[in-house]
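PROTEIN DATA CARD
Card holder: DJ-1/PfpI family protein
Chain length: 186
Origin: Microbacterium protaetiae
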Amino acid sequence: MADKILILTGDAAETLEVFYPYHRLQEAGYEVHIGAPEKRKLQFVVHDFVDGFDTYTEKPGHTWDADVAFADVNPDDYVAIVVPGGRAPEYIRNNADAQRIVRNFFDNDAPVAATCHGPLLLAASGVLKGRTTSAYPELAIDVTTAGGVFENGGAVVDGNLVSARAWPDNGTWMKAFLELLASRGV
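Structure generated from the sequence above:
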């Protein structure tokens, strides 16, 4: 049986930040599950950059079924977690079970990948103190407020954590995460 990896997400997650790791990790031989506040169909979004806008724009993206509700997750069933961005982390960070899952992986020094707004969940879980992480650059203040060190990079590695800024970093982010998994014998 393949090792399992859990993606923690919800509605309004960035489509590319969910699907790229989902398929890339499957390609590498892992069984990948989508975890969300509820086990139901999720609506993802597409964020893009338009000349003249101060921030990204948002359009409806793909839909996808969650495999498991956060409350039903036993972290010991998974070898790693991935936290994509989009707007989902803005509300899943308030979910006690999502925080429980994240803390378990940090407490056990197990592999974690986070990108874009994903570090909002890490901050809310209390695991960024003294840690270096990337994130969507406008979240630098959230990282530092949580006691972390913000690094504006596409594949920032700090121990068990591999982070990136957003979907344009998907290739370097997942390459570094797969290297971390291999180095840990996962």
